[in-house]
Amino acid sequence: MQKILIVEDEKSISGVxxxxxxxELKDYxxxxxxxxxxxxxxxxxxxxxLVISDIKMPKLSGTELLKQALTLKPxxxxxxxxxxxxxxxxxxxxxxxxxxxxxxxxxxxxxxTSVKNALDKEKLAKENQSLQKENVTLKKKVNxxxxxxxxxxxxxxxxxxxxxxAASDARVLITGPNGAGKELVAHAIHAQSERSRGPMxxxxxxxxxSELIESELFGHVKGSFTGAIKDKxxxxxxxxxxTIFLDxxxxxxxxxxxxxxxxxxxxxxxxxxxxxxxxxxxxxxxATNKDMQKEIEAGRFREDLYHRLSVIxxxxxxxxxxxxxxxxxxxxxxxxxxxxxxxxxxLFDDNAIQALQSFSWTGNxxxxxxxxxxxxxxxxxPVTEEDVAAFVRK
Length: 394
Hints:
Blueprint: E1 2-7, H1 11-24, E2 28-33, H2 36-45, E3 50-54, H3 62-72, E4 78-82, H4 87-96, E5 100-103, H5 108-127, H6 132-145, H7 153-165, E6 172-175, H8 182-191, E7 200-204, H9 213-218, E8 219-220, E9 232-233, H10 235-238, E10 243-247, H11 254-266, E11 268-269, E12 278-279, E13 283-288, H12 292-297, H13 303-309, E14 312-315, H14 326-341, H15 350-357, H16 364-378, H17 385-391
Parallel strand pairs: 1-2, 1-3, 3-4, 4-5, 6-13, 6-14, 7-10, 10-13
Antiparallel strand pairs: 8-9, 11-12
């Protein structure tokens, strides 16, 4: 029989956890350790399907237990329990390799969802060991499609963060200006995650009228409102076992924000006009070009939803902050345009590249891509500084 270890110094909490979980998970045996050191000694002796650990404990903190246990047995799955004041520490635990964290006071439904998902993940990992080589090949193909071009220190930092967070189910909020590449980051996270075989569903929250956003996200039943001529699945349901990407989340109405918050808390959605609740297993990645603290202060965005979405926050800087990547980006876009047109990639001489690097790119990478296509169509071969001066107005 597989075992689950609960590491918690408060006996009242460990007792409740053991009682509730053992009722639901009858195929597992439960052990309890009263501090981090005792927990580590248990992990030394035997393997556990899951370790549920508090963060603040005597002798050895949950953070140190996590680090030492994963050094000893990297395959061990951890769910961390944290008080409100420990949220920053809990986020650090995710970066160190924890599967999830649960805030105190503990929401039992949230706990059960996390534990079951963690156990499913652990089972899936064992079942799929024989398919690892195939998965690596698949991920490489997907990553190539959404690869981020550049060698700047800023971009490498983003790629390192993606490598760390992709393996977890932690929610990610991607911030940065329009056209900087936030969508590429979202796709890279999905492609490198264990959900990569599942769907990735994108929702542009700014493009959907506020009166339709609830139907778009959660679906509706026939006759629930004018124009609802048949049942419709929502984006959350379509993204089940995969990732939903909520782009421009800062433009979502407060009413819709409340519905999304409930969906995140309960892992369930209710279609418009229906009393039925549909259970969904979805990783949420969101993006915005807004200053969320200002949006919260202005009352346009719920602070509780912000904290739910931003377990991990990744900032994608403007192109002006990484101009050293422009040459590689130009070469990349020149090849893409050539492939689309069935031509040989056009060259850009050094002076043309220097001219492009001297500009301020308010439209960021999206604008640079358009300019490269324009220069390929209107300029010579190679594209020169004179071509840039003639056909690019800055």
